[in-house]
Amino acid sequence: MTRSEQLLQLHEKCNAECECKLKETATRPVFGDGNPDTKIVFIGEAPGKKEDETGVPFVGAAGKFLAEMLASIGMKREDIYITNIVKYRPPNNRDPEEHEKKECAAWLHEELGFIKPDVIIFLGRHSMTHFLPELKISEAHGKLVHRKIPNFPTEWFFPLYHPAAALYNGGMRETLMMDFKKIPKVLEKIQESKK
After folding, report:
1. What is the Cα–Cα distance from 121 to 180, expressed in whole angstroms?
2. Is it the case that residue 33 has pLDDT exceeding 90?
3. Higher pLDDT, 132 or 170
């Protein structure tokens, strides 16, 4: 069985076990997508309308913007893995609530444990505060954070603004693009730390 098939099996198991109430209103779960052997995992907040329709994360306008930013550092979606804190679309695209994040947390942790990334890149405050609740996205964006979390596959985190927020805010868009361009240096720094 390939790593991709093993990961799909993990998603199907977690979906069957997940007790998140959003299951009742969503069309389908939205599994993480991308390269199971990558060293970079991006985590957003929750599926939107397009994701709920297709079952693939980041396929709407924010996804197109993310693909552009990846291209700006010589990467493609196939090079990374992308998932969300919450696996089902909240009604009317509202923010996921704390209890919904907790109900999907075991799934996310299993997924990350399978991939074992070197770095987790947070897309927006919801994914960041799930792991690092004391941080503020306005202060932490674009800065590499080193934090040891017990029984967790990585110690490195890189918060960014969410592409959806940046789409409608020119200043935030500029900031996000500048922060995104730091990713190759961030990866170099993490590799150095392993030596």
Report:
1. 10
2. yes
3. 132
CA–CA separation, 172 and 177 (whole Å): 9
Please check whether residue 70 is in contact with residue 111, taking contact to mean a CB–CB distance below 8 angstroms: no
CA-to-CA distance for 162 and 61, rounded, in angstroms? 12
Q: pTM for the complete prediction? A: 0.96
Inform me whether the pLDDT recorded for 195 exceeds 90: no
Q: What domain count does the chain have?
A: 1
Q: How far apart are CA 46 and CA 1, in angstroms?
A: 29
CATH assignment at residue 187: 3.40.470.10
**CA angle at residue 180 from 190 to 125, to 5 degrees?**
90
Domain that holds residue 63: 3-194
Ordered DSSP codes for 4-70: HHHHHHHHHHHHHH---GGGGTSSS----EE-TT-SEEEEES---HHHHHHS-SS-SHHHHHHHHHH
